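User: Here's a structure from my thesis project, written as C-alpha cells. My advisor, Dr. K., wants to see whether a designed sequence matches the one we expressed. Can you design one independently, without my sequence as a hint?
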C-alpha cells in the first residue's frame, strides 16, 4: 500500500518524509525543492510486536511497512499544469491514500507561498486543485460515454447519467465522498498532518482551526513537529531518547501518525513468531486466514490446512497459550498471532 505526501510548497512535506523514513532528502526554503518524488518503505512501530517477540523468545523483529511518496508541492493552477502540476497529480493518482501536510507554525526563516500561515486556506487551495483535476477527468470520460451511448445500449445510457450526476456535484463542490463511478483524487482516503511548533504539539495555535476543518470534512488529523522529528531521526536512538526526555516530547508521535495512516487504509495487523523472528504483517480488514497465509508464503496458501490463532494479549501473557484452530474462511482479527498448518 502506498500513501502520497501532498500539500503546498514550504509546508514541511519533505521534512516529514525525512522524519518518518529517517532519510536526508533536500529541504530548502524555496518552492519545488522536490521535483522527482522521494520514495521509502516506512515501518509502523507497534508495541504489540515487542510483546509477541518477548513471549516467543525472539530477538529479531520485523515491523510492517507502508510505502510513502514525497510529492512536490501543488500550487494554484496545478490542475491546468502550473508548476508541473500534471506530473505531480499523476504521482498522487498512483497512491492508495494521501497525507495532506498543513503548515501550522510561524517562521521567519521559511517563507509561506501565500505570505501568511492559514492552514484552512492552504487546505482549500489544494483541495480545489484536486477537485478541478477530477472535473477534467470526468469531462473526458463523459465525452467518451456520450459518443458510445449513441448506440442506444441501456448500460451506456446509465453510465452517462452517472457521470453527469458526478460532474454536477463536483462542479458545485457538493460531492463529499461515497463511491464514485471513476477513481477520483477527491475520493482518496486522506490524513491531515498538522505541522506544528513544539509548543502546540498537544493543543493551541493555527492547528486548532485545521483540526476543526478536518473534522467538518470527516478526515482524521494528527499533529507532528516535523522539523524536530526529522532532526531526532538522524540521531542515534539513545541520544533521541535523552533529548526527548529533556524536551518533554512524547515518544509515540510518529508511531501514532503511522498507526493513523494504517487505520485510514482500513488495514489490520497480524503477527507471526518463528522460527527466527517475530514479524508484523498488514492485510485488508476482513481478509481471511487463507489470504493471510499467502502474505507469509505462497506455499502456506496453496497447501493451507488450518491456522492456529491466538490473540496477541493471550500469547504475550500466557506461558503456553492454547490456540484456536480456524479454517481458511476465518476472518483474521487485528492483533491475531497466526501459525499456519500446511499439507
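Assistant: Designed independently from the structure alone:
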Amino acid at each position: 500500500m502506498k500513501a502520497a505526501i501532498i500539500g503546498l510548497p514550504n509546508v514541511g512535506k519533505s521534512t516529514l518524509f525525512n522524519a518518518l523514513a529517517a532519510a536526508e532528502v533536500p529541504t530548502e526554503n524555496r518552492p519545488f525543492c522536490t521535483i522527482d518524488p522521494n520514495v521509502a518503505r516506512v515501518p509502523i512501530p507497534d508495541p504489540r510486536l515487542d510483546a509477541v517477540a518477548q513471549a516467543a523468545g525472539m530477538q529479531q523483529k520485523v515491523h510492517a511497512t507502508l510505502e510513502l511518496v514525497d510529492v512536490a508541492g501543488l500550487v494554484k493552477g496545478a490542475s491546468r499544469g502550473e508548476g508541473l502540476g500534471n506530473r505531480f497529480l499523476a504521482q498522487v493518482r498512483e497512491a492508495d491514500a494521501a497525507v495532506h501536510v498543513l503548515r501550522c507554525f510561524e517562521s521567519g526563516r521559511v517563507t509561506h507561498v501565500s505570505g501568511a500561515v492559514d492552514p484552512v486556506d492552504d487546505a482549500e487551495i489544494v483541495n480545489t486543485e484536486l477537485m478541478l483535476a477530477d472535473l477534467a477527468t470526468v469531462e473526458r470520460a463523459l465525452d467518451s460515454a456520450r459518443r458510445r451511448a449513441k448506440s442506444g445500449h441501456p448500460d451506456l445510457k446509465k453510465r452517462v447519467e452517472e457521470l453527469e450526476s458526478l460532474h454536477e456535484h463536483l462542479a458545485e463542490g457538493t460531492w463529499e465522498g461515497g463511491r464514485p463511478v471513476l477513481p477520483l483524487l477527491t475520493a482518496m482516503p486522506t490524513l491531515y498532518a498538522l505541522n506544528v511548533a513544539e509548543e502546540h504539539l498537544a493543543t493551541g495555535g493555527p492547528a486548532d482551526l485545521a483540526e476543526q476543518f478536518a473534522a467538518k470534512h470527516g478526515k482524521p488529523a494528527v499533529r507532528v513537529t516535523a522539523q524536530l522529528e526529522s532532526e531526532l531521526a538522524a540521531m542515534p536512538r539513545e541520544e533521541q531518547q535523552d533529548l526527548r526526555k529533556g524536551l518533554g516530547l512524547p515518544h509515540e508521535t510518529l508511531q501514532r501518525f503511522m498507526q493513523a495512516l494504517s487505520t485510514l487504509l482500513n488495514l489490520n495487523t497480524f503477527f507471526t513468531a518463528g522460527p527466527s523472528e517475530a514479524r508484523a504483517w498488514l492485510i485488508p480488514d476482513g481478509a481471511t486466514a487463507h489470504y493471510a497465509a499467502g502474505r507469509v508464503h505462497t506455499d502456506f496458501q496453496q497447501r493451507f490446512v488450518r491456522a492456529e490463532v491466538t490473540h496477541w494479549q493471550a500469547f504475550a501473557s500466557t506461558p503456553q497459550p492454547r490456540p484456536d484452530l480456524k479454517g481458511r474462511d476465518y476472518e483474521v482479527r487485528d492483533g491475531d498471532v497466526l501459525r499456519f498448518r500446511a499439507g
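When you compare it with your expressed construct, this may help: The first strand starts at residue 2 and ends at 6.
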